[in-house]
Every structure is written in structure tokens, then in C-alpha cells.
């Protein structure tokens, strides 16, 4: 968790000055009981009105100077805590961007979202309060004890006892509540997940009339969250009352001992009152400290959760070779892949060779591993066994930037970012010209509807909600084309298109104005039949490899797929 | 005023816990009063400790015994106050959260489709938490604070009227300052809240779509985008936190001045013989305690402002207009005769989508809807399911206008599978039995088998008990579709709607599923949206849509012979016409 401290590095000045000014303020506060003792022992004892006035003015001045220091401290604390949180959030974000996809699958996005939002907020609050109070409160506590020592060494033992007893209570309770806080947080995560899931599935839930059972499920989780909260509060709310009792016991002892000391002349009445005031100050500060500890323990729990995310070192291995030649041949050599924790291989022993500029069709049924296969090319996942070579270079040896610059991937699920159409199209190539973008739109059969929507600067809402499924798909195709990559991968990316549009698209893609090796993943024979090479997958294994004519002769699986789509009589 | 309304709503939730609230107030009164009595007895004790040889030990002992009792009373009542305060807060927030979530179930889709999901989630989760913090602070500190102020005032009056007047004249300064600062910071907290919602949406988008981000080497720009909203939040937070944290020092400085005034006036009074030194000690400790509740209450107001802003966002959602249920017929079983009569509909009043659409479907028919992307196919389904309501015209089942049915009774007649699959976080079995919770495992397996999902399910790590969720990448799109189809196989719908339900499933499997559907829907009506025309060739009626209206209808052969738009569509998909 110490690693988090480095995010303070830009705020060293604030981190030092904030507490420093708070300490100055506290110092002035510690003088107050002293001045009051003088008022009693000097001004009142000798009926000296003039010194009463002077001492009172001194009291007021102590307050005013303290105020100036305090405001300064608040400013530094606010700046440092917010700045720290901001740096931390930013660091988390860039760290998450370095995780491999296996790691992202393992951690889960909802967890990461909570880390970046509410956890960071909680830490910000904790840091802010800590800068203001963490040093100040103990300083006042020990300052008061030292003042007591100066006034009466014997009585200061009571102060020592009180402080020790209080510390045991305060820190003991903190230790007990820390793990409880973790359980509360994880239950809150559950609620977040449930709300999100409900929103995404609203149509299905309503179609099945599941509103009530959704509500019931949520209620159960909500209830569990509340009982965890109650359990934690049951312990943490003991802090205040117990400290209160301890300090009052201290006062009782103090007055008792004080009475004896005054009686024998070891103490004046004014000094006894000063001691009493110091004891009150200790109480006030310890109550603050107790509240602070609750906040800090929450924040520490959040900090350790965040720090455990930052501690996971990204598993991505980085090569540094770059692809330079124009074309890109792609070959698979005995490639197998298994998802983490899965019992079976998703694809096994896949080998084929695609020349630069060729079109490769990957055909197969649901769950046959088509998608997995193409995900290995840009190294979204790393092959478990075997090698994938681009222009003879193992993809492992390539730098991720160079590799992904060369690959244009069109995903199965068409996702757009909120912003404008232009923002989305320039995703892969920020330097693309207006003409490039319009060309890409035309090739992807998206030009017409985009013109209708207002052109390149048309707004794309969150998740592209203002576009239909088919429109989104065409935009994601245009987005990949705008990169002009050496390798284009279409991962079942025309499933939402009608045949007319798809066939136009296919024609456009077969005559790209630049050379690219194309991978087309599909379940439709019609989408891949004109390809130079068709790889037929079944259950993760290659059952056929060749062009349409060859496969119709030699591959039963291919023929069956073809016939299921076009009918027997038409396939002659 | 918005704030007042929010406050009233909050109170309506709090008032459900009347007895607890009463006890809370009672115990906070007790703890405040007991705390106030302690200085009086300390003062008494000090007055008995005057000088060397001038100490009355009996009186000191009496006073100390009372202090002990009071201290214990303070401890117990304070603990009860915070125990009850916590409890009420948790329950109130639980209720509000529950209401918010329940509200999600009855909000019209037009609302949910047009609001960022991240924003809605942030209301239910983080706004509710922020609100809880503020409420808890109010409970534990507001009543105690008020009691302390009043009690201190009364006790001070008893001690010395003149000094009390001075204190009371000066105190409003502190109140004025507090209210000025809280009013000044309200908009800053609102800005902070909005900036937080923005960053949540951004993180959501960019983290969930990491593949897209990496695949397009977008990392650096994603970070820039993120940092921009991070900077906005940083700016807003710094302002909100700094200005609101001025409340404490400001009230403290005023209270320190009051303390000095009391010391001066008190000293002069004692010199004049109007008060004892113990009395002055007691007065001084009151003057310092008088400061504390103002500090606390101002703190509470600061937090309350913030938390009311959060509550306001929650209530805005809770009080959003919900679906109007005008239908009254709640048991209805259709024969499957579906009629559209002059239906008009658009999502946006300025852009008409479906105009004057009429059609008639007889029981037992398989109706296919085809047409170019964006022609309104999915909208038709939104209307049949009553996800959206018509602008004009009517849709009827067996001659009964569906707007006279409750949505629940309408929907329980219909089985629907959408292209965008949704998996509930839970086991495979729970997911399949979504439409029929009482289904036995055998029934679930039979359903999965007829949807051809059994083969991949049995290969999952725990078979039917494997936990799956919508966000996990364990299942392919096609497998997800098979699961969704299994759900329908378990229900026995009178009307079936398939909206590109098999788009990611290979055609061999699809053909087998079609057979299962035919068996399931024998004599019943089904609507199929598909662009794979081979899928729908066998349909009894094909509706060809373009730009929101049906331009052709008939059977496959009729439409092909007609040589119209459908024929063009169909030919375009046939491989042999490809090169024409």
C-alpha cells in the first residue's frame, strides 16, 4: 500500500504545509488554558482589571491567528487530497489499460469500475481529513499532556493513563472494523452489478414479466448489505461513548488528586482549572481522532483494494519488432488455445498459410472456435501452443503498437464510443483525411445513412444508441477500413445486415483500393465462398481447408453447411 | 424550492421509523443534558478547592460521585443514539434504494433508452451512499447539537444573565457565516456530482470496451479523454471541498472570540463578586461547548447540502413519470389472431417512422418481416410487446385492443427472443428457467436439447450449474442465443417473436431449431425478423418493409413472381447471382 504514496509526489509542498499550518493552529489553541489560568491566578486573585483586559485580548488574538493558519491548511489539504485522488485515478486507468485480456476477464469490469469511482472518492476524503487532523489531534493530545507535565508532574500521570486507555480503545476498534468494511464494500459491488444487469436486460425482463422477481432478488441483496452495515456500525459506534467515559473518569481522578495537591500547596486553583481544560481539549481532539480513524479505516480498506489492483503486474509480454513491408502474409503453425480455467481447448492444432492480399474465410458453427482463432492474430489472447507468423515474424516478437496498427478488427458486438462519427472513424488512424473517412464510409455502405444523420460530425450517443444494429456494424466496419490496415479481420461482423447490404459490402471489400489480407469469420457459406482460402472449423479443429470448389468435393462439413443454406438442388 | 421538496421527501421516508426516531431524539437529549451537567459539578468541586488548607474534601467527593454517574449516563445514551441513528439511516437508504430499483422496473423504455446506464447506476449506488453519510451525520449530531445549544443557553442564564446576553448577541455571526458558505457551495457540489457521473460513464465505456481500445491503438487517446474528465472532476472537487471546509475554521474563530469575551466579562464579574471562580470555569466550558454544536451543525449543513443534491438526483428518478397502465384485462389468452389497424408511431415526433400500417395475421401463421436495416422491423416488435405505445391506430389480439390488457397479461402470451442476448448473473439452469421457475432439471435439459444448447452446456465446467453473467466472455454470441432460445422452449407462448434470434447461430443448427420452433408453435402465431432469407422461405406470410411501411406482402413464391423489392433482396443473397 506504501506504493500509493508516490502519487503525492506532485503535492509534496501541500502535504507538508497543510499539516504544518494545522499544527501552528493547534499550538495557539494549547496556549488558551494557560492564559485562562493566568486570568484566574493573577487578574482575579489580585482584582487586576487591566491585566484581565490584556489577557482576554490575547485570547481573542490567539483565535484570530489560529483562523488564518487554519484556512491556509484547509486550502493545502483540499488541493493535495483532490490532486492525489486525481493522480491515483489516472494511474489506475492507465494501469488497467496495460492488463492482458485474461487478467481483465479474471478481475471483471464491475470491480474495476468500483475501484476507480467510489474507492478513490473514499480515499480522497480520508486523505483530506488525515492532512487536516491526523497530526493535529495527536499533537494537541500530547501537547496537553506536556503542558500538564509542566504544571504538575504527578498529575500528568493521569493524562498518560487516559491517553493509553483511549489509544487501546480507538485502535482496537479500528482493527476490528477493517475487515467488516471489506464485506460491506463487496456487498455494495453486488448491488452495482445487479442494477447494471437489470438495465441491460430490461427488454427480456419485461418480456418474461420478471419485474417482481428482479425486485425480490435486489431486495435480498439490499437486505444483506444493510445487515453487514449494521454489524460494522454496531462495533464502530462504540468508539465515541467509551472515549467519553474514559475522559470523564480522568477528570474525576484529576479533581480528586488536584484537591489533595492544592490542599498541600503543590498546585494553585488556576492551574487545576488549566489542567481540567487540557483534559477537555484531549476529549474534543480524541473524539475527532476517533471519527477520523473510522474514515481512515474505510479509506485504508479502499486503498488496499486499489493497491492490490495496482500490484498486479500486467502479463503482457512486449516484443519490439515492427512490420515494415507492404503486404502481410499470415501463417498459423500448430496453434492451440485454451481459455484460462477451461477444461478443453477452444482451438487445437490449427495450421494454414495465407498469402499477402488473400481473402481467408473462417467458416464453422456456433462455438467452433472461429472467433477465438482470429482473436489470436492481434494478440488479444496469446496462443497456448504453436506460433502465428506475420511476414515470417512471430507475433510475440512484434511490438503491440506495430501489430495492432497493422490489423483492422471488426468485432462481433458492434460498439461505438460516444462522441461524433468522426471521433469513431479516426479511432485507428487519427491522421485520416476527410476523404479517407468518406471513402471508408462508402466502402462500408454507411455513407448514405451517415449523410442523412448529418455527416461526419453527427453525434454518436453512449453505446451508439442512436444507431440501429446494422448501422452500428457498418460504422465499425468503416472504422476498421479507415485505418487502411495490412490485415483486416471481420469477426462475424455482418450478422445484423440484410443480404442486399451485405452483398454490396462484400463486393466493395473484394475490390479494396489498397492491398490487405482479409479474414472473414462467418457461419454463412455465402460470405466466404469466394475467398481464396476457406478454413472450416468444427469443435476447434480444422476439418477442411481450401477454396470453394475443392471443399465442395472433399469436405463433408463444408458441403453440409452449404446445402443447409442454399438447398440441395441449387448447389449443383 | 427544490431543496425543500427533497427534504420533505426524505422526511417521508424517515417518518416510517417513528418509534426509533423518538428514541433517537430522547437519547440524544439525555446524552446532551448529562454532558451539560458535568461542568456544573466540576465547578462545584473547584469552588471547594480554594487554596492551601482551604479544601472541603466532603463536598469534592459528593461532586465527583455525581460526575461518575453522569459520565456513565453520557456513555450509554451516546451509544444508543449512534446505534439507533445508524439503524434508521441504513433502513431509510435501503428503502430509497429499493424504491429506485423498483422504479427501474416500471419506467418506460423511452426513458431507459435515452439515459446513460452509468448515470442511472451511479444514482442508485453512489448518490445513495453519499446521502446516507449526510443523513447519519444529521441524526447523530443535529439533535444533540440543538439540545446542547438550548441547554447551554438555559444553564448560562442561570449562572449570569449579562454574560449570556453577550454570548447570544455574538453567536448569530457564526450562523450567518455558515449559511452563507453552504449556499455558496451548493452549486459546487452539484458540479462535482455531475463531473463524477461523467467520469463514471467514461470509465464504463473505455474499460468495458478495452478490446476496441487496444485493437485500435487508442490507449493514449483514451487516456487523454479520461484525463479530461478527470481534470474537470479535480477542479470541481477542489473548489467544493476547499470552500465547504471553511465552515469549521470560520465558526471556530467566532467562538474563540466569544470565549475571550466570556473570560473578560467573567473575570470582571468575579472581581466584582458577582460569580465564583467555579462558576467562571463552568461558564468557560459552556462557552467552549456552545461553540461545538455550532461547528457540528454547520458541518451537518455542509454535508446535508451535498447529500440533498444526491438525494435530489435519486428522487428525480423515483418520481419520473412511469408507464401508465390503462389496461384492466389481466387474464387473457389469445388465439393468435393479430391485427394492426392504421398504426402510427415514431420515437421522435419530428421524424415519422411507421405511418398508417395495417395488417392482419390469422392464428397459426408464420409471419416473416424482412427489409433493409433500419426500416422499422424491430420497432414493430417494440409495439407488439408494448415496450413503446402507439401514437395512433391500434393493435389487437383476437379483436381485443392490446392497450386494454395489462402489459403483464399481454406479455405472458408472447415469447420473445432478441438478437441482443441478455444473460442474467446466475447458473445456466436459472437462466433457462427464467420464464418458468418451477421447471424441473429434466424439463430444463429437454428445453436445452430442443434448442441445441445441451451440447455446449454439458461441456461447461459445472454443466447446468455453471455460473454465467452478461459481461463475462465465456460464451460466444451464438451460444448465448441458444441459451435464450432454450428459455422460450420452456414456456408455452401463444405468440412467438424472433428478432434476428438466430443471427449468430450456424445454419445447420438453425435449421434444426426451426423444426423445434415449428413443433412448439403448431397452430400458433409467430413473427420472425430475419435477413437470412433462407430462414423465412417457408413463412405463410412475408411482410416486406421499407421506410416504416409494408410495401409488399405475400408468400415467397408470390413475391418472387411479382419481381419486386423482395425478389431483388432474395436474388442478392443467392451466390449465383453474385457477380451479375
Q: What is this structure, in a nutshell?
A:
The complex is a heterodimer of chains A (572) and B (580). Helices cover 63% and strands 11% of the residues of chain A.
Characteristics:
heterodimer, A: 572 residues, alpha/beta, ABC transporter transmembrane region fold, Rossmann fold, 2 domains, six-stranded mixed sheet, four-stranded antiparallel sheet, 20 helices, B: 580 residues, 64% helix, disordered C terminus
Set down the secondary structure blueprint.
The complex is a heterodimer of chains A (572) and B (580).
Chain A: H1 12-44, H2 49-96, H3 101-107, H4 109-134, H5 136-151, H6 156-200, H7 202-207, H8 211-236, H9 239-264, H10 269-311, E1 330-337, E2 347-354, E3 359-364, H11 370-375, E4 385-390, E5 393-394, H12 400-406, E6 407-410, E7 419-420, H13 421-425, H14 434-443, H15 447-453, E8 459-460, H16 469-481, E9 487-491, H17 499-510, E10 517-522, H18 525-528, E11 533-538, E12 541-546, H19 548-554, H20 556-566
Parallel strand pairs in A: 3-10, 3-11, 6-9, 9-10
Antiparallel strand pairs in A: 1-2, 1-4, 4-5, 7-8, 11-12
Chain B: H1 2-14, H2 18-47, E1 49-51, E2 54-55, H3 57-106, H4 109-114, H5 117-159, H6 161-208, H7 210-215, H8 219-244, H9 247-271, H10 277-318, E3 338-345, E4 354-361, E5 366-370, H11 377-384, E6 392-397, E7 400-401, H12 407-411, E8 414-417, E9 426-427, H13 428-432, H14 441-450, H15 454-458, E10 467-468, H16 477-490, E11 495-499, H17 507-520, E12 525-529, H18 533-536, E13 541-546, E14 549-554, H19 556-562, H20 565-573
Parallel strand pairs in B: 5-12, 5-13, 8-11, 11-12
Antiparallel strand pairs in B: 1-2, 3-4, 3-6, 6-7, 9-10, 13-14
Amino acid at each position: 500500500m506504501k506504493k500509493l504514496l508516490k502519487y503525492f509526489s506532485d503535492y509534496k509542498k501541500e502535504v507538508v504545509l497543510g499539516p504544518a499550518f494545522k499544527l501552528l493552529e493547534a499550538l495557539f489553541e494549547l496556549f488558551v488554558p494557560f492564559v485562562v489560568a493566568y486570568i484566574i491566578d493573577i487578574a482575579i486573585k489580585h482584582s487586576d482589571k487591566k491585566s484581565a483586559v490584556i489577557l482576554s485580548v490575547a485570547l481573542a488574538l490567539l483565535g484570530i491567528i489560529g483562523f488564518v493558519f487554519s484556512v491556509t491548511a484547509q486550502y493545502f489539504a483540499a488541493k493535495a487530497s483532490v490532486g492525489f485522488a486525481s493522480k491515483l485515478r489516472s494511474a489506475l486507468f492507465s494501469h488497467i489499460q496495460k492488463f492482458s485480456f485474461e487478467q481483465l476477464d479474471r478481475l471483471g469490469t464491475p470491480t474495476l469500475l468500483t475501484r476507480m469511482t467510489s474507492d478513490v472518492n473514499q480515499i480522497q476524503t480520508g486523505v483530506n481529513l488525515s492532512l487536516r487532523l491526523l497530526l493535529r489531534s495527536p499533537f494537541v493530545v500530547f501537547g496537553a499532556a506536556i503542558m500538564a507535565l509542566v504544571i504538575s508532574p504527578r498529575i500528568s500521570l493521569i493524562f498518560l493513563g487516559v491517553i493509553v486507555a483511549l489509544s487501546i480503545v480507538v485502535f482496537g476498534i479500528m482493527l476490528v472494523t477493517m475487515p467488516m468494511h471489506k464485506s460491506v464494500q463487496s456487498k455494495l459491488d453486488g448491488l452495482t452489478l445487479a442494477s447494471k444487469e437489470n438495465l441491460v436486460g430490461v427488454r427480456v425482463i419485461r418480456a418474461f414479466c420478471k419485474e417482481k422477481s428482479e425486485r425480490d432478488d435486489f431486495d435480498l441483496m439490499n437486505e444483506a448489505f444493510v445487515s453487514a452495515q449494521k454489524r460494522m456500525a454496531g462495533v464502530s459506534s462504540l468508539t465515541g461513548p467509551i472515549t467519553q467515559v474514559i475522559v470523564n473518569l480522568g477528570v474525576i481522578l484529576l479533581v480528586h488528586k488536584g484537591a489533595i495537591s492544592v490542599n498541600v500547596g503543590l498546585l494553585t486553583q488556576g492551574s487545576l482549572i488549566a489542567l481540567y481544560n487540557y483534559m477537555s481539549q484531549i476529549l474534543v481532539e480524541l473524539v475527532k481522532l476517533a471519527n477520523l480513524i473510522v474514515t481512515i479505516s474505510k479509506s485504508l480498506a479502499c486503498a488496499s483494494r486499489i493497491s492490490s489492483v495496482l500490484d498486479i503486474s500486467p502479463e503482457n509480454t512486449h516484443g519490439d519488432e515492427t512490420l515494415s513491408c507492404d503486404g502481410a502474409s499470415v501463417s498459423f503453425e500448430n496453434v492451440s488455445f485454451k481459455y484460462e480455467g477451461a477444461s478443453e481447448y477452444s482451438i487445437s492444432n490449427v495450421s494454414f498459410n495465407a498469402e499477402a492480399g488473400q481473402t481467408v474465410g473462417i467458416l464453422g458453427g456456433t462455438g467452433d472456435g472461429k472467433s477465438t482463432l482470429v482473436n489470436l492474430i492481434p494478440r488479444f489472447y496469446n496462443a497456448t501452443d504453436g506460433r502465428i507468423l506475420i511476414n515470417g515474424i512471430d507475433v510475440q516478437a512484434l511490438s503491440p503498437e506495430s501489430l495492432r496498427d497493422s490489423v483492422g478488427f471488426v468485432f462481433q458486438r458492434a460498439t461505438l464510443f460516444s462522441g461524433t462519427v468522426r471521433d469513431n472513424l479516426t479511432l485507428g488512424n487519427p491522421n485520416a483525411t476527410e476523404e479517407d473517412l468518406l471513402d471508408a464510409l462508402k466502402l462500408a455502405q454507411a455513407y448514405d445513412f451517415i449523410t442523412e444523420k448529418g455527416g461526419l460530425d453527427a453525434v454518436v450517443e453512449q453505446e451508439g444508441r442512436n444507431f440501429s444494429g446494422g448501422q452500428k456494424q457498418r460504422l465499425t466496419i468503416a472504422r476498421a477500413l479507415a485505418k487502411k490496415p495490412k490485415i483486416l479481420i471481420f469477426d462475424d461482423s455482418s450478422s445484423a445486415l440484410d443480404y442486399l447490404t451485405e452483398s454490396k459490402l462484400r463486393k466493395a471489400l473484394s475490390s479494396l483500393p489498397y492491398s490487405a489480407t482479409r479474414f472473414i469469420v462467418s457461419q454463412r457459406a455465402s460470405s466466404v465462398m469466394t475467398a481464396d482460402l476457406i478454413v472450416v472449423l468444427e469443435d476447434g479443429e480444422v476439418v477442411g481447408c481450401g477454396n470453394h470448389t475443392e471443399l465442395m468435393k472433399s469436405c463433408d462439413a463444408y458441403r453440409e453447411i452449404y446445402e443447409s443454406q442454399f438447398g440441395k438442388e441449387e448447389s449443383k | 424550492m427544490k431543496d425543500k421538496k427533497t427534504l420533505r421527501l426524505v422526511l417521508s421516508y424517515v417518518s416510517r421509523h417513528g418509534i426509533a426516531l423518538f428514541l433517537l431524539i430522547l437519547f440524544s437529549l439525555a446524552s446532551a443534558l448529562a454532558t451539560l451537567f458535568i461542568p456544573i459539578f466540576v465547578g462545584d468541586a473547584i469552588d471547594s478547592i480554594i487554596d492551601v488548607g482551604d479544601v472541603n474534601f466532603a463536598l469534592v467527593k459528593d461532586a465527583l460521585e455525581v460526575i461518575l454517574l453522569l459520565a456513565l449516563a453520557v456513555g450509554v445514551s451516546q451509544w444508543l443514539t449512534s446505534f439507533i441513528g445508524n439503524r434508521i439511516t441504513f433502513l431509510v437508504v435501503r428503502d430509497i434504494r429499493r424504491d429506485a430499483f423498483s422504479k427501474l422496473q416500471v419506467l418506460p423504455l423511452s426513458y431507459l433508452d435515452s439515459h446513460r446506464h452509468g448515470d442511472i447506476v451511479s444514482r442508485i449506488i453512489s448518490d445513495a451512499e453519499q446521502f446516507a453519510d449526510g443523513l447519519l451525520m444529521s441524526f447523530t449530531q443535529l439533535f444533540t447539537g440543538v439540545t446542547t445549544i438550548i441547554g447551554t443557553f438555559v444553564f448560562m442564564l442561570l449562572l449570569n444573565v449579562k454574560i449570556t446576553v453577550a454570548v447570544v448577541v455574538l453567536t448569530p455571526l457564526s450562523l450567518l457565516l455558515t449559511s452563507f458558505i453552504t449556499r455558496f457551495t451548493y452549486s459546487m457540489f452539484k458540479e462535482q456530482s455531475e463531473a463524477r457521473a461523467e467520469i463514471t460513464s467514461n470509465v464504463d465505456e473505455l474499460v468495458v470496451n478495452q478490446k476496441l481500445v487496444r485493437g485500435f491503438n487508442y490507449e493514449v487517446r483514451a487516456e487523454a479523454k479520461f484525463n479530461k474528465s478527470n481534470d474537470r472532476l479535480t477542479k470541481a472537487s477542489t473548489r467544493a471541498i476547499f470552500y465547504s471546509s471553511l465552515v469549521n475554521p470560520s465558526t471556530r474563530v467566532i467562538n474563540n472570540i466569544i470565549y475571550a469575551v466570556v473570560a473578560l466579562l467573567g473575570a470582571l464579574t468575579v472581581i466584582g463578586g458577582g460569580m465564583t471562580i467555579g462558576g467562571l470555569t463552568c461558564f468557560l466550558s459552556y462557552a467552549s461547548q456552545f461553540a461545538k454544536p455550532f461547528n457540528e451543525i454547520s458541518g451537518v449543513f455542509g454535508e446535508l447540502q451535498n447529500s440533498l443534491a444526491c438525494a435530489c438526483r435519486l428522487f428525480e428518478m423515483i418520481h419520473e413519470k412511469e408507464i401508465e397502465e390503462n389496461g384492466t384485462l389481466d387474464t387473457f389468452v389469445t388465439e393468435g389472431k393479430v391485427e394492426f389497424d392504421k398504426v402510427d408511431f415514431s420515437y421522435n415526433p419530428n421524424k415519422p417512422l411507421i405511418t398508417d400500417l395495417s395488417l392482419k395475421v390469422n392464428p397459426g401463421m408464420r409471419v416473416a418481416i424482412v427489409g433493409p436495416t433500419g426500416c422499422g422491423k424491430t420497432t414493430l416488435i417494440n409495439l407488439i410487446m408494448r415496450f413503446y405505445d402507439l401514437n395512433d391506430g391500434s393493435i389487437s389480439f383476437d379483436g381485443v385492443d392490446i392497450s386494454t390488457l395489462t402489459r403483464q397479461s399481454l406479455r405472458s402470451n408472447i415469447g420473445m427472443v432478441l438478437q441482443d442476448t441478455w444473460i442474467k448473473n446466475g447458473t445456466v439452469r436459472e437462466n433457462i428457467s427464467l420464464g418458468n421457475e418451477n421447471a424441473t432439471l429434466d424439463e430444463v435439459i429437454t428445453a436445452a436439447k430442443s434448442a441445441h444448447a445441451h451440447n455446449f452446456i454439458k461441456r461447461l465446467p459445472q454443466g447446468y450449474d455453471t455460473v454465467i453473467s452478461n459481461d463475462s466472455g465465456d460464451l460466444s454470441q451464438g451460444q448465448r442465443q441458444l441459451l435464450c432460445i432454450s428459455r422460450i422452449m420452456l414456456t408455452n407462448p401463444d405468440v412467438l417473436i424472433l428478432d434476428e434470434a438466430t443471427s449468430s447461430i450456424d445454419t445447420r443448427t438453425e435449421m434444426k431449431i426451426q423444426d423445434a420452433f415449428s413443433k412448439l408453435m403448431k397452430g400458433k402465431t409467430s413473427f420472425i425478423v430475419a435477413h437470412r432469407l433462407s430462414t423465412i422461405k417457408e413463412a405463410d406470410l412475408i411482410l416486406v418493409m421499407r421506410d416504416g411501411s409494408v410495401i409488399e406482402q405475400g408468400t415467397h413464391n408470390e413475391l418472387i413472381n411479382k419481381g419486386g423489392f423482395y425478389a431483388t433482396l432474395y436474388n442478392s443473397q443467392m451466390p449465383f447471382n453474385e457477380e451479375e
